[in-house]
Structures are given as structure tokens and as C-alpha cells.
């Protein structure tokens, strides 16, 4: 009868289903080991680990640890327990649609990040980030492009201009938050960060167009983290469309500038006019591709770091008091103008420690993506050609062996420099973040104006933390925000 049929189905789902999964799980790993053995014999070894399930690899485990259990560091800790100690700091796995090796020790990470011949850049979807973008090109082309970009954003002279351009906007934003009284910090900080980016990169003031650009970027970034299924209705499909629309918008701006010969002292202007030693300039599509990818690299990351600064300071009154004291002193020395300049930075030592500690704990990029260009041997193991390599930087920053009480916000730990190779928040080697000084500057400026003029309290100090897509308190850090009462 009906019951018998149900029983049959239940038996299948709860009995045979898991058994089949288990068989598939073993088969997947055996398959990769066999293929490796056929190619290399017994002389070489794959790193320890497990390839997971067919098609999915260890995606479910990653989702479990990052999204459901909200214990992201357990993902690597579980591997250490299952496959022995920290070992060579290498584990085999299958993630983001590719067989992969995870590098998660200072030595292994350094090895990967500093061997451009062995490991190339590999973003899960290069096209979304931009084919001619600095994050995708290699070798001499990469060095040249990087030179242009760091000259435009990361040099003291550029940072000086940027500081002057950004501050009025930040001061206005903070005053408006105090008028609101209660804010969702993640949202407000994103808004002001984006307004600053539009100004720095393409000299655009907030308008319906910049709102549209903002929306396009949000959908594009969502696609970067989505499963690459490309048909109408998927996040990935919509992200590809957004990328094309963004390229068109920036292209139009570039053409308009060329037509009227308009010169702008912004990133686009810088990239349009810069020349290498042979007098060659960037092609138009390179300028556009790189502006788009710079927004991807610098927008959410910076906004997220600033949000975490407000969050941790709200929970650390002692740190906030020290920060305030230092910044009040800087502010007093300036008289009426409360804008800081590049020259004030040497007097803001505690602020600098707050900046580093915030970025360490924010873990904005949990891992960096590379691909093995050839079979590469390290510490007795082989990383096979074509496999992706995930440089797991997050685990360095949350390892009690590297940082005492790693989950405690403690700016004073920066009285001592970090142990070599344990601080890779901006990556390392020849691809180290091209905007790291700009990111630090934006945080510093924010901290200055926040601490001298305002006070704030988290309304849900015990809100759960989400780790996907980016680490943030689940409520976006809702806080009461008001002018400092003196
Ligand atoms: C707190 C904020 C930021 C964090 C945590 C961060 C982190 C990183 C990391 C980890 C990398 C290395 C990626 C890799 O090796 O594959 C990177 C690269 C990069 N970042 Fe940032 N970043 C931040 C802000 C910015 C800003 C503000 C900009 C510029 C506007 C920027 C531009 C870049 C660029 C262009 C690269 C690629 C460099 C290359 O491939 O040569 N970043 N960033």
C-alpha cells in the first residue's frame, strides 16, 4: 500500500542515499590519487587532504564552516586534525569547481606568493574581474600596469591629494549620521566610501548615474562569488551583464573626456596619460578594465574595514579613549582646520596600530587564488600542473601561535611587529595589494574624524557574525551615533 511505498522511499533516502554519497566520496579521492600515481609513479606525493564529492568537492564543508556553523577557522583546523599537524602547510582539496591545493603556513604561503614562474593568477572568473586587469595579467605587462596604478593611487603625492579631496565628504557624512541618530554602519560606510571612490577615480559627484553604477557593482561582486552557471536568472549571468554595462559607462566617460580634451586630476586621468619608458600609453580598454577592477578591489574591502573599526572600538572603550586622546592632540595642533594631512601621520602612532589591528581581524580576503603553471614540488609534496592553489591567509591571522588571543581586538600587540610571514592581509610578493596605503589612509582619516567628534554604541553588541560573502555582524552593525558630548 501507500505506507509500503513510503517506507521504500524513506529507506532509499536514509539508507542507500548516504551509502552512495560515501562511495562517491571515496571514489573521487581515489580517482585523483590514481591519476596522479599513473603520471608520477610513487616518487612524488599529493599533499594530504581529501578531494570531497564529485562535482561539489569540499564545497559543502566550506559552506558549513563559513555560513552555517559560523566557525570559518574550523575549516582548516579540521584538516589539521584529520591529516596531521600543520605539516607542510599544504592540503589537497576540490573547491570552486577545480582540484586545488590549500597553502596555509607562513612558509608555504610565502613560497606560493613569491614564485611567479610556478604560480599564475587565477580568479575563478577572470572575465568578471577584467581580462586586461592588473589582477589578471602576468609578467612584464603586469609590472608595467602595476607601476601605473601604484603611481596613481599609492604614492605619497597621490595620497596627499586624495586626503584633501576625501575629507570634506567624510565630515559631512559623519554629521549626517549624528542627525539620523541611529545608523546601519555597514550601509552608511559603504555609501560614503563609494562617493569617495567615484570622486577619486572618475571625478563624479553623487547622482542617479553613480547610484546606478553602485548597483551594478554590487551585482557584479555578487557574481564573483557565485557558482559560475551562465543562463538567464543566475547571479553569475547577471554579473556578466553588469560587467558589460559598467565597461560601457566608463568607456563613454573616457570618450567624452577625449572629445573635449578634458583633463581631470583623478585615477582615470592618471591612467589615460601615463607613459612607460618607451612612451607607450595604456589602450582605452585597458584603462576601463582597470578602473572597474580597482573599484572591485577597493570598494567593499575598504568599507568593510572601516565598519569593523567602528565595531571593535564600540566594544573596546580603552582603545577608543587612547585613539581619541591622540587624535584630539593632533586636532588641537591644527587650530581651526581639523583636516589632517599626510604630514600628520607620524604623530598618529596609536591610530596606525588601530588600523593594523582592524585589518588583521577583518580578514577581508580569506584566501588568494593562484594556479600551478607546472608540477611544483614543495616540502616533499607535489602541486600538480593546472590545479588551483588557494593561499589561505585567514588562518595565519587567527592562529594563536602567531597572535596571542587572536580573536581579541588589541591594538597594542602592534608594539611588536608580527612574526615573519604571519601578516598577509594585503597578500604578499609581487602582487601585494596595490592600494594598501590608500586603504590605510582612508581608515586613518575616518578614525580621526570619528574619534574627535563623535561617540557611538552598538545596539546589538552580540549580533552573530556572518562570514559570507564578507565577514560582518549580521545586523550590519546597527548603532546609535551622536556628537561627542564634552
Ligand atoms: C582594507 C582594504 C583592502 C584589503 C584588505 C585588500 C587586500 C588585497 C589583497 C589580499 C590583495 C592580493 C590579491 C592576490 O594576491 O591575489 C590585493 C590586491 C590588490 N588590491 Fe587590495 N585590498 C584593500 C584595498 C584596496 C584598495 C583601496 C585598492 C585600490 C583602490 C586596492 C587595489 C588592489 C589591486 C589593484 C590589487 C591587485 C594587485 C596585483 O595583482 O598586482 N586594494 N588587495
Automatic annotation (TrEMBL):
Pathway this chain belongs to: Plant hormone biosynthesis; Hormone biosynthesis
Binding annotation for heme: 433
Cofactor or coenzyme needed: heme
GO biological process: brassinosteroid biosynthetic process; brassinosteroid homeostasis; sterol metabolic process
Keywords (A to Z) from UniProt: Heme, Iron, Membrane, Metal-binding, Monooxygenase, Oxidoreductase, Transmembrane, Transmembrane helix
InterPro entries in UniProt: Cyt_P450 (IPR001128), Cyt_P450_CS (IPR017972), Cyt_P450_E_grp-I (IPR002401), Cyt_P450_sf (IPR036396)
Source domain of life: Eukaryota
UniProt xrefs under Gene3D superfamilies: Cytochrome P450 (1.10.630.10)
PROSITE patterns in alphabetical order: CYTOCHROME_P450
Bilayer-crossing regions: 6-28
Pfam families for the chain: p450
SUPFAM superfamilies given in the database record: Cytochrome P450
Keyword Iron-sulfur assigned: no
GO molecular function: heme binding; iron ion binding; monooxygenase activity; oxidoreductase activity, acting on paired donors, with incorporation or reduction of molecular oxygen
PANTHER family (UniProt xref): CYTOCHROME P450 26, CYTOCHROME P450 FAMILY PROTEIN, EXPRESSED
UniProt family annotation: Belongs to the cytochrome P450 family.
Protein name per its UniProtKB record: Ent-kaurenoic acid oxidase
Species this protein is from: Aegilops tauschii subsp. strangulata (Goatgrass)
Lineage: Eukaryota, Viridiplantae, Streptophyta, Embryophyta, Tracheophyta
